[in-house]
Amino acid sequence: MAKNKDARPPTFAVSVVGLSGTEKEKGNCGVGKSCLCNRYIRSDADSYYSEHTSVLSTIDFGGRVVNNDHFLYWGDVCHRGDDGLDCRIQIIEQTEFIDDQTFLPHRSTNLQPYTKRAASTKLQSAEKLMYICTDQLGLEQDFDQKQMPDGKLNIDGFVLCIDVSKGCNRKFDDQMKFVNSLYSHIAKSKKSIVVAATKCDECVDQHLRDLQAYVASKKNLLLIETSARANVNVELCFNSLLQQLDKTRGKPKSVAYLEAYKIQRQLVASVTDRFEKLIVQAVRDYHTTWKAVTNNLKGQADYEEYITLEGSRKARNTFSKHIAQLKQEHIRKRREEYFTTLPKTLNNMLNNLDEVEHLTWHEAQSVIRNRHDFQYWFIVLEQTPWDETDHVDNSDRRIPFDLLETPEAERIYHNHVQHLLSEKRRGEMKERFKKTLDRVHFISPGQPWEEVMCFVMEDEAYKYITEMDRRDVYTRHQQEIVERAKEEFQEMLFEHAELFYDLDLNATPSGDKMTEIHSVLNEEPRYRALQKLAPDRESLLLKHIGFVYHPTKETCLSGPNCVDLKVEQVLANRLVQLDHGRSNLYYSNPNVDKLNLCLLGKEGLAQELANEVRAQSTDDEYTLDGKIYELELLPVDVNSTLLFSHTWVSTFKPHGCFCVFNSIESLNSIGDCIGRIRAEIAGSRRDRFAQPLPFILILANQRDSVCKNIPILRHQGQQLANKLQCTFVDIPSGAFPRKFTEFQIKQGLRAVLENMKHNFDFLAPLPSIKDMSETDLRIVMCAMCWDPFSVDLILSPFLDSHCCSAGPTGQNNTLILDKILGDTRRRIQVTVLSYHSAIGVRKDELVHGYILVYSAKRKASMATLRAFLAEVQDVIPVQMVAITDSQADFFENDAIKELMTEGEHIATEIAAKFTALYSLSQYHRQTEVFTPFFNEVLDKKLGIESSFLFDNSSREGTTGASEDMFPTSPHSHSPAYNTYYPDSDDDNEAPPPYSPIGDDVQLLPTPSERAKYRIDLEGNEYPVHSTPVGEHERNHKVPPPVRPKPVLPKPNVRKLDPNLLKTIEAGMRSNRRMPRPAHTHSEEVEGSENYADPVDTLRSRGYINDDIYAVPEDSHGRLIKIRNTYGGLQEENGYGSKSNPSTAARRPSKYKHRSKILFSKTKAYQRRFQSDSDGEESGPATQKKKKGRAHRGSEEDPLLSPADPWKQGIDNPAITSDPEQDDKKVKKKKTAKAPKEHKKPKSSKPAKPLYPPTRRTWDSNYFGVPLENLVTQDRPIPLFIEKCVDYIEKTGLTTEGLYRVSGNKTDQDNIQKMFDQDHSIDFVALDVAIYAAAGALKAFFADLPDPLIPYCLHPALVESAKIVDYMQRLLALSVIVKKFPPVNYNVFKYIITHLNRVSQHSKTTLMTADNLSICFWPTLMRPDFENKDTLSTTKLNQAVVESFILQSDYFFHDGEVAESSSSEGTPPPHCHNMVEALLPLQLPPPLQPQQIQHTLPPEPLI
């Protein structure tokens, strides 16, 4: 031991000895002395070398490391014991080096034998270097060079190594003899000795036992079982020797090898496991390199510890294995991805069962290889297999084609074929089941599946398909019948137009009015058909009422099919502004002698027609009607690219296009082609005055004599010609050997020439036209939305003429006609509107005449016309136009005949003109259709304007009437048909007697009438003489107007049901009407006329009312007027009015008082409801009232005639009663009960809060507070919700009726009270009832100040629920839910996810998503159930919550859309698109209006 001269730690020198010598003495390997020293000095795995040779060259033996000695200096190591004492241990290994040439021990300065030399305690070797490994010898400069201190050492102890393994050519007994000799020499040194049993990991038990016996025989000799390779007990061996050298140190515990080895292996396993986890976490890409990983892991304890114990080589092997696993996992995922994509690929490429049903997989691969889209789905690699190429790292997701050679791919193919077979069979059975449902006629709209199921259970298709498919088919069937029922219901509402247009004063449906409406409609089967969908029916009804009160193109129930929108589109495409100059046409006058014809056909038909025309021509010259025309023909196939370029028109300059067809397919192609040609020409045409290209549709004859397709082709061709507004040339009767006849060709040429003639204006110069801003006549044409004809049909008489131009800027529905009327050119303004938009114009604008159009196929169209015409003043001329396909309809269809006859009789009664336009006829292109009507309007113009001024002055009162004969059109500042006001009705003078003049009723002008005018090609007339056309046309001159009579305001207003008003307002999609400016005197308005004034208008007149709309109290608001004997009015309240008898004239009446049909239709509903209400009245007052009116029975004569008086003619044209007075008295009788309603005024009741107060009876700082106060950033969900949900999901997911069955309220309150006191309560420990926990959870949401789903998002959610397409509906809902406040969103996501999990156990709980949404949506949305609008959207609200529950993964967890039978459920109720748009190639089947319903016979007058 070195002397401790200073306070440095003590140093001990230890000599490691054991069997050494030549191979003959020690065998092929040593006893492990070097490995033991290596493991102790440098214990980390990277510094441990298992091979240390003793056979050296002379040079290596003489090097500084060996230094010609037979011992090695291993260096020193610092040791710190458990007691905290430090020391330094220097290790010497005594060995014997063998010459690699002679295989004899090297000669050194010490020539003693090993046993003596190894026992030496004093060693000396100058500048001897520390030994590290065999590779160090000869390369000392490349290793750490550390010299043995002072060149000498004093040995303090010995470690005697004895190999207990089997050994290599060495007997254990021989080793023990050597050891015994060695031990005897060492023992003489009196130094401490520890015996190390080396290589115990390969030990022979007998050898170990012999060694143990040997050691036991020696005194104070300690045996330590070691393994340098396994690093077991190496440090214990030297520590045991150190304790013998320094007795102050604690004696280490001696541990047997097996126990120590187990401990070491556990340590290594733990470190290895942590390292492997570290590698998995750090390396996720199999492209990562070991160098990058070591750089990232350096300094981490798990990495460093593993490197120390196992070494870098094993660490890298572990890394390599992980990299290989990552790559294999990547390949596996790519393979699964390919196999997942393969069914979709096969479904796209081989989706035809007939094609693949009998193909083998090899044949199917060949088919796939030849597909045009093969490169889109597959990739062919140059090297195979794909998983051993770079394709595994490629981002290309196409399937490697060699993957199809695998058995898995073949299995997928066969599964695909089986899937196609099953889907085909499934589709067939679903269609059969659908037909079965179609045959079950008693299925009503809205009827649940459970009620129908029992009637179809025996059906074969029912048994084959799954329950989900059954419900899906039934849902689709319900959608169809519900949609059809709603369409029919809407059509029924239009057919009862008089019921809705006969309104009270302010156009607000009072309770009586709503009762009347329901009473009348309840008689209709179409009303009762929606009995199971009463909320939807009520919603449709209220929406219709809202539309009647606020009719605009925005609120029009036909949506994009509104006449106003259609007219705007047509006029925008066909008209130009007046400042556009006329461009030169590509041919200048109609006297042409050359015609360029384009022949359009399919599969050679065009060329055949060209050959036929040339065969009938002589040198390309064709004789027609005595004139020779040079023809240039251009036959073109419909698929030619030439047609889709507009340049061919300007190059070839065709005068017309013959379109030939001989099949449905070729007809469809022709229709598509014409549409595209027109679009191309319209898009590229700069000269908008250029005439349109005429198309002539020609039906080719069939070669065989008998062909059943001819009638179908003829009908389809006529329909297409009607839709495209072109000429149809049919096959003449008789048999012809060729496809085209001379008759057809000539008819086509005549049509082209006729079109050219009508598109040129070659008249002589006419007198100068007035300034553009002035118009001579203002005509309004009205048409019904959704009528089964195109607006082009009614516009074509104007648009197909060059005398037509666009109206003023901003008036998109107006056109201007320049026509010769009489001897002067007149400017006629024609405004084309829907009936609902024309109401405002009818009431407040100067209109000289009306053209009222209706479809003879639709009763609703006639009903709307009647309702509109009834309120038109009888001084304004009317032209009625009936639209149908052809004259044959009148004789073949009784419904059409009845509607046309009714229209003609109405025209007869009111002395209006009547004509019919036929969509299959070309006559409607002639402007002369309306020329007689324009003449009549011009003749009556002064009387019309005088009447307008008279009526306007009556309404203006003391503010004065406008002096302008042509008041400024509201179009200049706002659409006239967007603002309208009540008519005034302050004159009770009787209208003139009925003047049913039937001479004007004619389909076309009579020959005698035409003879009086020379009509040019534009329909302009030049008078032949000045004789009046007929006296009957002068019968309606109106005398000069009388001064207006004063009127007084009506202060008493009766409130209406506010919920009903809210419901109507919610159903309207447009803004409120702009109120009319206030007047000094308000008008007295008939209760049956028109629409409401908003409340701000009433306030401006002095009303004070909180309601949006109000109805005046008829019994108190009527102004009593006393007629004097001179026809004037006596003074009232200081005001008086005198009129000059010479200028006095009656105030214009309305057409409903001139027509028995209009009058009876208008009053039929009143009589029907009045008869019901009269039957309920009792008492002397009522009887007295009836008795007092008995003598006036003759005044009711118009109502005593047959319900449809036009069927028997008009028997009494000179009735002397006053229909307007009768109308008002009927109104008074209808409102006789009004005073009773004031006994309990609604305003006397306190306002009921929207929601009742909280259900809790105790104060709480947790329940009933805003959500923001209950959550934090770390806890986004309130704790109470989490506890309830966790408890329910752990214990109650199988509870039947969960959330539906009400829990005990006391239990619910107790749960909340206990939670108030202690937030850490345990529901499980308390054994809380599931129903109580569920109820407490719902109560939590019910107590929130604001609902979880914010009110501001309710309308958007409802509108989203109306979307028919399911994916678009989900997308809309996903956008809205992201607008939730963050706190609400987190809670909503949490609770909806929970409800989705509950719905997954519906088999046991019976709580499907549908049932859960029914239970939860009122809690989450908290609607106002007192509002009728809420009742109408109940199903929509529930559908919204149901969608969130069903698709919670999609909305909140980025999942896929879940498949559910309810996902394509019945679409929400809506009124749009109730009639499909016209198909592009054929018209929809015409509506079949029912017979006109007979009104109920009137009650006999008492």
Please describe what this structure looks like.
This protein is of the alpha/beta class and 1502 residues long. It is 42% helix and 11% strand. It has 55 helices and 31 strands. The strands form 9 sheets. It has a 7-stranded mixed β-sheet, sandwiched between helices. A 6-stranded mixed β-sheet has the order 3-4-1-8-9-10, with helices on both faces. A 6-stranded mixed β-sheet has the order 14-15-13-16-17-18, with helices on both faces. A hairpin with a 2-residue loop joins β21 (814-821) and β22.
Question: What do the pLDDT scores average to?
Answer: 75
Describe the biggest sheet? 7 strands, mixed
Q: What's the N-to-C terminus distance?
A: 148 Å
What share of the residues lie within helices? 40-55%
Secondary structure class reads alpha/beta
Per the principal axes of the C-alpha atoms, what is the gross shape? elongated
Q: Give the number of DSSP strands.
A: 31
Total DSSP helices: 55
- Can you list the strand order of the major beta sheet? 20-21-22-19-23-24-25
Sheet-strand content, in percent, reads: 5-15%
Provide the descriptors you would attach to this structure in a database record:
1502 residues; alpha/beta; seven-stranded mixed beta sheet; six-stranded mixed beta sheet; 31 strands; 11% strand; disordered N terminus
